Amino acid sequence: MFPFLKKLLANTPMNKSTSAYEFALEKITLPPTPLVLDLGSGQGTGTAYLSRALSGANIIGLDATYDCLNWETLATGAGHVSFVQGDAREMPLAGERFDALFAVMTFHCLPEPERVFQEMARLLLPGGVLVIADVDGHHWMARPFEWVEHLAISPITRAYTEEAFHQLAIKAGLTHISVYSRPNRKSFMMWFVAYKETDRAT
Q1: Which of 67, 113, 159, 185 could bridge across to 142 with cysteines, CB 3.0–4.6 Å?
Q2: pTM recorded for the entire structure
Q3: Using an 8 Å Cβ cutoff, are 99 and 36 in contact?
Q4: How far apart are CA 132 and CA 21, in angstroms?
């Protein structure tokens, strides 16, 4: 993807919106002071929103590049916010640390999806939650979305179905899977939620 195009798209209303994070937080429960990873943080808008919505949380935003990140424009909350540069297939973070991992409008453009799921599962604490908010592969908008992305942004873009996410999650050892959509709204978004199983007593 051309850097100038990535910066241009980062400033669209859709990419600045935090409504996908807000909807996701209504569906999960987190501890009082969670450690949260925002995968594909881009310009940092969603990461900053999480720091405001989750009082006292520590939030880390991870992206492959800092090209779109602009610290000066971010309105962060009381908790600690930091950003890390890294590849989603091999994230430079210690395992079993995070209470929650968000991937909002990110997963569709990541290579080696099975490997990324394994990495996300590795980072979660037992009982931690994975939230993916992305284009629903069953929605009629999925194919046009892929076509535009293939032409202008990335040839590997794929709008995943809930069945595809389910298979990836099971292979990664995640469980208690739920899928959500906004009721009574014409939305092409899907929220996929899965948990890392808690340690069983031996």
Answers
A1: 159
A2: 0.89
A3: yes
A4: 10
Q: Which of 108, 112, 90 is nearest to 161 (CA)?
A: 108
d(CA 136, CA 72): 33
Residue 15: partners with Cβ closer than 8 Å, 6 or more residues away: 9, 42, 43, 45, 105
Half-sphere exposure of 6 (CA within 13 A, CB side): 16
CA 78 from centroid of its chain's CA atoms: 22
Sequence-distant (6+) residues with CB within 8 A of 133 are 20, 21, 23, 24, 102, 103, 104, 105, 189, 190, 191, 192
The segments of the chain whose pLDDT lies below 70 read 1-16, 184-185, 199-202
What is the Cα–Cα distance from 76 to 182, expressed in whole angstroms? 26
What is the rounded CA–CA span in Å between residue 144 and residue 169? 26
Q: Which two tokens stand for residue 183?
A: 């009721």
